[in-house]
Amino acid sequence: MTQNPIIPGYHPDPSICRVGDDYYLANSSFEYSPGVPLFHSRDLVSWTQIGNVLDRPEHLDVRTGLAGASGGIYAPTLRHHDGRFWMITTNIHEVGRGHILTHADGPSGPWSEPVYVAGLIGIDPDIAWDDDGTCFVTWSDVMRGGISQAVVDPLTGEVLSEPRSLWAGTGGAHAEGPHLIRRGEWWYLLVAEGGTGPGHMVTIARSSSISGPFEPAPTNPILTHRSTSAAVQSTGHSDLVELADGSWALVFLATRPRGTFPRWHTNGRETFLAGVDWVDGWPVIDEARYEVPVADASFVDEFDGEVLHPRWISPGTSTDGLVLERGRDALAVSAERLLAVRAEDEYWSARLHATGDVALSVRMDDAHQLLIERLGTEVRARIVIGPLSDVVARMDAPADAVLEIRATEFEAERGARRGPDLLRAGLVSAEGFVELATLDGRYLSTEVAGGFTGRVIGVEALGVQVVVSRFEYESGAAAE
Q: What pTM did the predictor assign?
């Protein structure tokens, strides 16, 4: 079975399209901005982030704090049609305004001013064109239940037909994530069911018409790991793509839970890859087709360019370019102007080189985080779990002390109850890493924190005149 993600870290709800020999993939981004990360590949296995679709703050209403956590941008659909790239998604914070629809001549943008497809209340919109050029939006309909569809004008967002119900799925909870794919004489409707957790699954139906009626596959679900002991779980929310040689592949989300029962996943829902065979006109998933190596996500950023790398994100409003303005008060726990990257490995280390009062953190949200803070010549470790916030250790250190957080393997005797990992916070001295605090990683997992995202590693100014000169992220370094 599939073991390693092609895009690790919190990158759920993948949508993929091919243009010639190039593949492009977009993911959900929720409360973080810029929104909808966009990736490129030539082989489906190795991917490079080339930008974010919603990269202008005026196009992205996302919010900080616990009220904004796991809100914002839900599942996108990315397509190439008639020489243009198209992306449609839903901002749950402004769902009444309509689905967001934008286009670009090239994947790196600039993307057009978004239009809003109003009145089709729900999430996970798909966009597809029939042979005569009619454009259809298909979505998970929270008003009627199941999957619905309407004709739209993609340039204005105007809805041109009454919505109609397409398919309610096979009976699993939360029929969502629809994608319409044409293959030969058939239109295939790909759907996620079972909820984006242990019961997640991929189901499919087909019709000779883009508007149905749709006949379900006799082998549904076509992909699920529910009730198995597989290392990869919660498989679902997928998209199909035809390769240049005529073969097919499937991208889908899944999690990598760890530890003893009931197991915890920490990096959110990630993007995985499988092969597809067609048997009697139905897709059969081959999870062993692609050998996906463990990705080396290590990087060093010295912030010496004119713009930030697209990996950098912020909960709520984007930071202003390379200027990290003062964020929260040192006694507060709610992030303000946090700059972060997704944790992409099971084990990793992150180091922050900066002057001034500053914090390095690993977090799920404002109520679940481990921080190492430097205030003047004092370094302190803080743990926030729910309503509890406590400075658990302090020590004197140079005003330029390098801060470090590590995710390491959980050390316990065989048979003992183990979390997914251990999080260690401290600083770097001449003698090496000085640990101030250790936290059981289960407290920074989805199973404890809830929500739809995963761990991010954040940098935040706690005072004025903070200069961040270097950030180091090393894959697997802490496991050694």
A: 0.95
